[in-house]
Each structure stands twice: as C-alpha cells, then as structure tokens.
Specification:
The complex is a heterodimer.
Chain A lengths: L2 H14 L3 H16 L1 H13 L10 E6 L2 E6 L13 E7 L5 H10 L32 E2 L9 H12 L7 H7 L2 H12 L1 H13 L8 H13 L1 H5 L4 H20 L5 E6 L5 E5 L8 E2 L4 E2 H7 L23 H6 L1 E10 L2 E8 L2 E11 L4 E8 L11 H14 L4 E6 L4 E6 L4 H8 L10 E7 L4 E9 L6 E6 L2 E2 L5 H20 L12 H4 L3 E8 L16 H21 L1 H34 L19 E6 L1 H9 L6 E6 L2 E6 L2 E5 L2 H11 L17 E5 L4 H17 L1 H5 L3 E4 L4 E5 L2 E5 L2 H13 L3 E4 L7 E4 H23 L4 H8 L8 E5 L2 E5 L2 H10 L6 E5 L3 H10 L7 H5 L15 E4 L5 E4 L5 H10 L3 E4 L8 H9 L6 E6 L6 H10 L4 E3 L5 H10 L2 E6 L2
Parallel strand pairs in A: 5-13, 17-19, 20-21, 20-24, 24-25
Antiparallel strand pairs in A: 1-2, 2-3, 3-4, 5-6, 6-12, 7-8, 9-10, 9-12, 10-11, 13-14, 15-16, 16-19, 17-18, 22-23, 25-36, 26-27, 26-35, 28-29, 28-33, 30-31, 30-32, 33-34, 36-38
Helix pairs in contact in A: 1-2, 1-3, 2-3, 2-7, 8-9, 11-14, 16-18, 16-19, 18-19, 19-21, 20-31, 24-30, 25-28
Chain B lengths: L2 E3 L6 E3 L13 H12 L3 E6 L2 H5 L5
The chains are: A alpha+beta, B alpha+beta.
Chain lengths: ~1000, ~60
C-alpha cells in the first residue's frame, strides 16, 4: 500500500467509522512503512497533504474468466516490498458452478500471498453473517465481505476457505499471509465497502450476460464522468488523446478481423474528431434483451460489445479500456454513422445520453463506421487535440498492421499525413534504424499457434550502434514495460546466439561469455503478439503477464533463430562477434574500474617497484620510467632523490614463434605505471588532476628493443592517458649512444648523426682543403667556405642515399642524365624497360605514346631538382661534377696519380682524397684521430655517474617532448615517423598486415626535439 | 573532414577541430575494449630474431 493509500484510508476511516482496530491497523502499517526511509518520508508528506486519490483508479482487471472477475485494487507498491498490501475484490456470480475452483486457479497464477490479506468476497447468500446486504447486490453479482470485529479465528477460516486451502499442511502459508496487520487491512477495506458499490456497475458491465436496467446504465455514465481517470488514465493531454485511441481501436479490431483497410482520423475545425473506417459498420439491429439497437447499446453501456466472447473477434485490442461508451460519456456530443446492409444510419448523444435516435440517413453500397465526438470541456481542462500526438500513435498502429492505411487530417491547419506500411514492423524497425549503419537486412518472422489462438511477429536488425531498442506490443498496445512476450524473446535470442557461438566455435576459452545484455547491444527489435485474452499487470504502465504467450514466443522465436543462424552463418557470425566484443567491453570496463579503485586506494606507496621522490610538488617532480633493472639500479643510485622518482619496467618476452620475438608490457607492469602516476585509468576514472609528477620521462635503451618498449609505452599513454601528452608532460630521455674519450676527456653524443657532426667539428678544427690541379695553381678552401662546401657535399650524399633506396646509383645517374643542368624527376617502367623523364609533360607524352595494354608504372625521384642545383653550385668552388667521382689511377711506377683534393690538418698533416665526394668521410676521419669512440649497447653499460650526467641531470640532459602530430595536415609525416621510430607493432591476434599498418597510422605519435 | 578508423571496430569516423577525446577509437566502449586488451597482454611489438637472441637467455 502506498502513502497516498494510507492517507486516504486514514481520512476516510475517521470520517466514516473510525473503529479502533482500523486505527491500529493503519498505525502498524505506517510503522512498517516507516522502516523504509524512502517510504516514510513520502508517507508523511502524503498524510499532510491529505490527498484524495480514488482507490478505484487503481483498479486493474487481473483476469476475466468465464463467470469470474478478479480485480486488483489500490496499492502501487511492488510485490517485492514488505509493505505491499494488495486488495482483491473477488466478484463471483452466483451462477458460476465452480467458483472456488476458479478462484483457486486464479490464485495459482502467482497472485502475491499478501493479496490474500485484502478484501475477500463470498456469496452473501451463503453468509448469513454478512452485514452488507446492500441493495447493490441484486444484479446477481454477489459481493460480500467478511465482517470486521467478528474475531480473527472466523476471519481466518473464511479466508482459507476462499483461498481454497485445506486446513492442513499449507495452512502455514496462508497464516503467513494472514498476519494480524493484514487482517486489520482487511478491516480497513470493509470500512470503505461503500465505495465498492460505486464500482459495482463497472464490474457488472464486464459481464456479457449482464442484465441491467437503464437507470443503472445512467449510473455507469455518471460514474465515468465522475471518475474519468479510472477509464482513461487522466483528464490531461494523455487522457484526451486516449479518447481517440479508444475509437481507433474499434476500427483496428475490424482490421484485425481482416475487414477494414482504411482508417481516417480527422480533427475538425471546431475541435471535434472523426474516426472513419471501412469495416463492417456498427450493427443496428435491436438487441431484444435490452430493447435497444446494438449501436446504442455499445455507445451507452460500459463494456458492452462482442469482444468478450471470442465469437466475433478472435483477437482484439479493446480490452484495456472500457471502450467507446466511455468516450461517449466523456463527450459533450457524439454521433455515430454506420453503413451496413445498403443503408447508412445515424445516432447522436449528448454527454452519454441518446439525443438523436437511430435513423436512416441514406443508402450506400459501402460499409463502415464514422464516430465523431467533441470532448466535454466540463471534464477536460484542455480539449485541443495535438496532431503530433495522434499522428505518432496512428503511425505506430500502421506499422503494426501492415497493409492498413491510416490517415490523419487536421482541418484546423490543413496538415495531413498518411501512414501505410506494406512490410509492417519490418518498416518500423528500419524507420527506427534510419541513419544508423545496419549490419544485415531486417530479419522478420511470423508464427501462429492456431490451437491457442496466439500469433507473434518479430522484426529485428543489428546496427553498428551500441544502444538497444526493443519495443513490444500485445494486441497493438504498446507494452512499455514489456512482459512475458518480451522476456521470452530476450531469452530465446540469448540462447540462440550462445548456442550458435558455441557450435561454431566463436567463443575463446579465456574470454567472458556474452550476456543477454551484450547480445542485445546494437539491436533494434519489435515483437508484436496477438492474444485472445491479454492480461496486464497494471493499467498505466503496461506489462503483459500471460504465461502461455511467453512459452509460445520463446519456442517459436528460438526455433526460427537457430534455423536462421544455421542457414546464414556469415550473418550469425557477425552477431556473435558483436556480442563477444560487447562482453569484452564490459569485462574491460570492469577490470579498469577495479584497477582504478585499487590504484586510488593504494596510492604510490603501494607500488612495489616505484622508488619515489620526497617532494610532492608536481612543479618540480619527475617520474623516470626506466627500462631494465640494471639501468634502473644506476638511476636509483645517482639521482636527485628530492625530485626524481624511478619506476623500473621490463618488456616481457611473451613467446618466440616463427623466428619472431614478441615483446609486451605485462599486466603487472601497466598496473605499476598507473599506480605510480596516480591518475587512475578508464573512460570515467582517469583524472589528470591526480597526476603525481610534473614530468613523465621514458628512458629506454637506444636500441631496437628499447624503441619497441618505448613505442608500447607511448601507445598505451596515447590511447588511455592522452591528456598527459596533450598537456606536454611526457618526455623521452636521450641517453647517449656514443662516448668519445681522449685521455680523461669525455664527450657523449646521442646518435650517429650527432657523432658525425661531432667528428666533423673536430676534424675541421684548423683544417683547410687544397685543390692541386696539374694544369693550374693550387687553391685553398678554408674556414666558412670549407664548411659550406662540406655541407653541400653532405647534402649531395644524403640525396644519393635517398635515390639509392629507389634503385638509382648517384654516379651513373648524374653522369648519364645531367643535361643542361637538369636531372630527371620521373622514372617510368614499361614492361620492365626503364626510361627517365625530366618533367611531368614528358612523362605524360611518353605514356600517351605507349600501346594500349602496356603496363606503365612510374617512380618519383625525390630531390633531383635540388641535386641539380647543388651540382651547379660546385662551380663556385671551381669544381665540377667530374671532380665528385674522379679516380686516381695507378701509374707505371706503381704509385697513384697525385691527389687533386688534399685536406691539410692544423698540424699540417696531409690527407689526400680520391675525389671530392670523399671529403666528408675524410674530415670525420681526421676528427676521430686521437679519440676513442665507444658505442653503448644499453643504459646498463653506463655507470651511474655517466647515466646521471648524460641523461638525468637537468643541467646537461636532452629531453624530447612527446606531442601528437597534426595527423591529417601532413599525412606523409606519419609514415615517416612510423618508419623512423621503427614501429613494428603487431596485433598478435592474427597476422593482419592491414590491421598493423592501420594501427601505426591511427597512432601517429612523433617526438620533437626539445632541450629542457 | 579528417577521417580515421576506430582501432578496435574499424568503423570509419570523421571529426572536426581537435582530435576526439576517444581517438583513435569510435566510442568509450571500444576504448574500454582496447584497455581490456592491454590488461590481457594482447598487444606486443615483434621483430625478427637475431643470432644474439638465440645465444642470450631471455629476460623472462
């Protein structure tokens, strides 16, 4: 029982009777409610407000079996709540021969035990003790209650009897339900029994063998007008539009019966609405029993109609509301035109009372019904119909009833729409999936069970999205809360996907199995069932409860899905793989959250390997992530312990196969890094504010393995801690690759380029070049001019290396193709024969001249224009291209011809060169004289002082800051970067070259030089 | 408009302005899948074995 109910009971019980047990019962119930803090607050609030909800607005029909109606009333509490109190009204017609057996059957369908605490009903004629002999029992519905104050013993007996329980073994169950508090609740209901009389007509109206007088019918209309919420939910926008739904539902029923093809809804200028169908037309014959026409009977009697008996309609949607009569009762005026049997008739009503008797207004060959009504502004505060609201529902109905054309026209503004869907819910699914990438064509199945008169339709499609859109309908009613049909579909899908995945070996042993939720990721599905006797859990939030529907759907859909999967393995595989991916995501998220929690709890002190620094000022602290234990040992031994923290890591060798070596970052290693950084990990849990250091410096060996470890680390940081990179806190340490030693003097250089530069610098100290040509006087090049010449030659050297990668050798290329100071820019290959072209036009002309079918390919020769310019520049040094490649030859004496180019060092040592191109090598060789060059194989080869001095000491070291390149501004750069850093990143799960290349491209990281 | 492919599901994506937060993935979901792969040690860098590797004992 909810708070409002308590409030209502409290107020009414005081006003009406206020007996002591009643107050007690309420007090106890409130205490129960108070146990739940959430409830107690709302309970108190409600008591203060003293609202006036009608108990019977919460009535729902639980079942409608021949002769027995079970109605549940009150109490929005969930069945799980201990505070739940259900009130049941059991109305049993005296004619029903096996009332108690029916009741027992009802009970067997999982009515919560607490329900038995509610109002009980028994035949008054059999219970002489009943005080409520009320006049309202005349109609054959016997409604009696166990009187309060008669003693608990008697009450128990009575309830047990009604529950169909023997006084034996199962008594305990009943007693559990019939505790004192509940009995008091029963008493509460007894005290408001007068209310029951007011819904008597509603209950009575549900009987198809109903026998009533007109006076009582009027009472029905009055009740609907007094308590409209009970019939249409509310009197707001929702209730107002529900009126149209009620009328349309009648037309839909004609469509379900296979007769009606068109429904037109028209919003009239005056605000009334017409619903026109081409069904069979309302019957106009006189129903003898009642002495009135069938149409009048239907319009003026709650629940009158042919739908409670399966004769005329096998399936109908009209059971959830009270029907078109309620619409009539709530309308200022209403008229019905019905065409049938060659004639058109008309009947009119005002506020539910016949104002224009049924009469013929013409002849026609068509059949159908038009209902026009004007909602009563006495009932509805706002009687304006919304085109969109109606349109939405009508479109839904059109989707659900393929081939049915439904139009809506708004005469107020001329808007008009027509809904017609040949493929029904398949169109519906595709409508919902518009703009999403579908993974396969929509799947559709329809199944019937003629024996039980059940039918189901299912349309489903997976998209590349990750949300789940499931809609379910029972007899065209949108079951927002799902129910047995939807659960059955879910169960069948989960089972089918898992079975297929297992059979087709699509699950890996160490991966989590997809759950139902995983399997439904990206799914859009609509299930629609037709049920002769739908049962709903409550009126407003619609949920189907028929268990036979569940069994039917699960079997039908399950069988269909497994067949479908067997026959379409590719499609099934995609679905399974999607589910597996989803399961992985869930598992990954779980792990990440766990890790984040762990690292947050433990903090840095808990990192086993971290050697932390003492300062906690992130402006000055640095974390060195150091590859290898020995290097880490050196780093620990000689660091600034206040600001520099050391975290050793190792690349773990995973396995060796196919002559390849696979290196990974182990799970533990990653955790150590996350813990040390303190930021947490994961989409939600990563927080850069918690970063414990101002710089994160990756220090790895200057070899291939070191660069691999660095790439792994950077990739991980880039993918999962990118804010670190964006903020510019990630650096690469630059340990030297070479040491130059001369006596006690030490120099360090980071790579080959730097070594060459260093040697060049040493070699040039005091050196000059002499050109001693036989036919001219010697010239000297020195100082700046020599440096310029050297740079020019180095540049030619560099371009030569680039060309050689394309299979072009510098010397013959230049000798053969240098024409008028120009070099070719393209090399074309036609059927294996090469040719060179100086300009694009040359190549184009060449290509055009080739016969059809010739395989022409071309290679760009980079920098040849620049090369040509450099060659031309040689002239300024009085040198020629021939000087570059000249050779000294052996003379008869056995000696070489005198060298033309000679480098003379500061100490006047001479170094003759074969040709001009040898100059850079010569200079470097001079530079190296007296120095011992040592190459470090790894960080570990340095002693701790060396490591400190060269790599860690802020005064000397060189750091490179890691930045994300503007990937798309310069696509080439990524490739170059990837090659430069020697990234060979393999995704072990398959030797997918494309994937690997993609990985590299999508992880465009490059490093730029930065001295810090 | 710049494009990229999700490193997990390979869906082709476009973006404008700055790199999307989930780059190089399409969604938080795929990002978590990737994180799961790191945790399960599915990513490796590989290279050809050298004679040194065969002579030397592995680190692990």
């Amino acid at each position: 029982m909810n708070a409002q109910q308590y409030a209502w009971l409290l107020r009414n019980s005081r006003r009406r009777r206020g007996p002591a047990p009643l107050a007690e019962g309420i007090a106890r119930a409130l205490r129960t409610a108070a146990n739940d803090a959430r409830r107690s607050a709302s309970a108190r609030l409600a008591l203060e407000r003293v609202l006036d909800p009608s108990l019977f607005e919460r009535v729902s029909v639980l079942s409608f079996r021949k002769g027995v109606v079970v109605i549940r009333a009150g109490c929005g509490a969930t069945s799980r709540s201990s505070a739940a109190r259900w009130f049941a009204i059991c109305a049993i017609p005296s004619r029903a021969s096996s009332a108690s057996a029916s009741w027992r059957r009802e009970r067997g369908r999982r009515i919560p035990p607490a329900m038995s605490s509610g109002l009980t009903a028994a035949g008054a004629h059999h219970d002489s003790a009943a005080r409520h002999k009320a006049d309202h029992m005349k109609d054959g519905v016997e409604m009696a209650t166990a009187p309060a104050g008669k003693g608990d013993g008697e009450m128990r007996e009575k309830l047990l009897d009604l529950l169909g329980l023997p006084a034996g073994a199962r008594q305990r169950d009943a007693l559990g339900a019939l505790n004192e508090a509940n009995l008091a609740d029963a008493a509460v209901i007894l005290s408001v029994e007068a209310r029951i009389a007011t819904v008597r007509s509603a209950i009575a109206g549900l009987y198809h063998d109903y026998d009533e007088s007109k006076v009582q019918l009027l009472e029905g209309a009055e009740h609907v007008r007094k308590r409209p919420g009970m019939y249409i939910g509310d009197v707001g926008q929702r209730g107002l539009h529900h009126l149209v739904n009620e009328v349309v539902d009648n037309a839909i029923d004609e469509a379900l019966a296979g007769i009606c093809k068109n429904i037109d809804v028209i919003i009239r200028e005056g605000g009334s609405v017409s619903v026109k169908d081409d069904g069979r037309g309302f019957p106009t014959g006189i129903v003898e029993e009642h002495g009135m026409s069938a149409v009048e009977l239907c319009m003026t009697r709650l629940g009158a109609g042919a739908k409670f008996d399966r004769g005329s309609y096998k399936v109908s949607s009209g059971l959830h509301g009270i029907g078109v009569s309620a619409v009539n009762f709530l309308s200022e005026w209403c008229n019905v035109e019905t065409s049938r049997g060659g004639h058109t008739y008309r009947i009119g009503f005002r506020r539910g009372v016949t104002s224009e008797p049924l009469h013929e207004i013409g002849t026609t060959t068509a059949t159908g019904t038009t209902v026009t009504f004007q909602p009563d502004s006495e009932i509805f505060p706002d009687v304006n119909f919304q085109f969109e609201t109606l349109g939405k529902r009508l479109r839904e109905l059109a989707f659900l009833n393929s081939g049915l054309r439904i139009s809506i026209r708004d005469e107020r503004d001329g808007r008009e729409e027509t809904y017609y869907y040949e493929r029904g819910i398949v169109d519906f699914v595709e409508h919902l999936n518009e703009g999403k990438g579908a993974l396969h064509p929509t799947l559709f199945v329809t199944r019937r069970d003629d024996e039980r008169n059940l039918a189901c339709e299912l349309a489903m499609q997976y998209t590349d999205r990750y949300d789940e859109v499931l809609m379910s309908f029972a007899n065209n009613i949108n079951t927002h809360d799902g129910g047995t049909h939807l659960s059955a579909f879910r169960a069948a899908l989960t089972r089918a996907v898992n079975n297929y995945g297992r059979k087709a070996n699509l699950f890996k042993a160490n991966e989590p199995l997809p759950s139902g939720e995983d399997i439904r990721e990206g799914l859009t599905a609509i299930i629609s069932v037709m049920v002769p006797e739908p049962q709903f859990e409550s009126q407003t939030k619609v949920k189907l409860t028929n268990s036979d529907v569940g069994t039917f759907v699960e079997t039908a859909v399950g069988e269909w899905l497994s067949t479908r999967f067997e026959e379409n393995p590719a499609e099934a595989k995609r679905i399974v793989q999607k589910a597996v991916a989803s399961a992985q995501a869930r598992e990954a998220a779980r792990k990440a959250r766990e890790t984040a929690r762990k690292s947050a709890m433990s903090g840095a002190g808990m990192s086993r390997k971290l050697v932390d620094c003492s300062s906690r000022d992130v402006d000055e602290t640095e974390l060195f992530i150091v590859e290898g234990d020995s290097a880490a040992g050196s780093a620990k031994g000689y660091r600034d312990a206040r600001t520099q923290a050391i975290l050793p890591i190792r690349g773990k060798i995973l396995n060796v196969e196919k002559a390849r070596l696979h290196k990974i970052l182990s799970h533990e290693e990653i955790l150590e890094i996350i813990k040390a950084l303190g930021t947490g990990i994961g989409v939600e849990d990563f927080n850069i504010e918690k970063l414990r250091y101002g710089r994160v410096i990756i220090m790895t060996d200057a070899d291939v393995d070191g660069s691999h470890i660095r790439t792994l680390l950077l990739t991980f940081l880039f993918r999962h801690m990118r804010p670190l990179i964006d903020k510019g806190v990630v650096y690469i340490a630059q340990p030297p690759l070479y040491q130059l030693a001369r006596g006690k003097k030490r120099e360090y250089v980071v790579d080959d380029g730097a070594l060459n530069a260093k040697l060049k610098q040493l070699g040039l100290e005091g050196a000059r070049m002499e050109i001693r040509r036989a036919d001219a006087s010697a010239q000297t090049i020195e100082g700046e001019r020599l440096i310029t010449l050297l740079e020019l030659l180095e540049e030619i050297e560099r371009i030569g290396r680039t060309l050689s990668r394309r299979g072009v050798v510098l010397q013959p290329f230049v000798s053969e193709f240098l024409r008028d100071g120009a070099l070719p820019t393209w090399r074309a290959t036609v059927n294996g024969a090469e040719s060179y072209h100086y300009a694009d036009e040359d190549y184009d002309a060449f290509k055009a001249a080739q016969p059809d079918g010739a395989e022409v390919s071309r290679t760009e020769l980079p920098d040849t224009r620049r090369l040509a310019r450099l060659l031309a520049d040689l002239a300024s040094f009085d040198c020629s291209v021939a000087d570059l490649f000249m050779r000294r030859v052996e003379q008869v004496t056995g000696e070489l011809t005198p060298a033309v180019f000679v480098i003379v060092t500061g100490s006047d040592d001479e170094r003759p060169l074969d040709n001009l191109m040898e100059t850079p090598v010569g200079v470097r060789a001079i530079g190296q004289k007296g120095w011992e060059v040592k190459r470090f194989k790894g960080l570990g080869e340095m002693n701790k002082e060396e490591l400190w001095e060269t790599t860690m000491d802020p005064a000397n070291r060189v750091l490179r800051q890691v930045v994300v390149s503007d990937t798309d501004a310069d696509a080439d750069q990524i490739e170059i970067d990837a090659r430069e850093t020697d990234i060979l990143f393999a995704i072990l799960m398959g030797e997918d070259v494309e994937k690997r290349r993609n990985f590299i491209e999508t992880n465009a990281i490059h490093v730029k030089n930065l001295d810090v | 408009m710049p494009q990229y492919r999700c490193a997990i599901c390979e869906k082709l994506l476009e973006y404008q302005g700055d790199l999307p937060e989930v780059y190089p993935f399409c969604s938080a979901r795929c990002k978590m899948v990737d994180l799961g792969r790191w945790f399960s040690e599915s990513y490796s860098i590989d290279r050809d074995l050298t004679p040194e590797d065969l002579g030397a004992t592995p680190e692990e």
